[in-house]
What we know:
With 150 residues, the chain is an alpha/beta fold. It is built from three helices and five strands.
Amino acid sequence: MAMGGGAGGGHVRGRRRARKRPLSEINVTPLVDVMLVLLIIFMISAPLLTTGVPVELPKTEASAVEANQDPVSVSIDRDGAIFVGDQGVSWENLVLRVAQEGGEGAREKPIFVRADGRAPYQAVARVMARLSSEGFTKLNLITDTSGEGN
Length: 150
């Protein structure tokens, strides 16, 4: 009886073929890259979506206004046309549209009056006086506070 030999039914260790297992981890690097690009795009485009009427605001040295509630935006372009949000409105329907835009408690919400720097002073003064006389007390005249004077 020979003790050493290769005959027999023994296992040969260390000679197994390595099996490739499926990779069970998700590579998150491309996902993070795409999300950061989307974040940057939305951060840049979000301020452009808030105003619909292009006006060139007059430059002042006033400090920024803090708003706790969503304000109602009333814009006046260089020709004196009035807009609530981004929709044009007539002088007669101004108060009604501002009340509709503000929803419940509209008279307590802040109203941002954005007027083009070349708009007639009379148009801006009339809009602010009309809103004030109708009970809208939180009127804010929005200007460009970049500090660059004309």
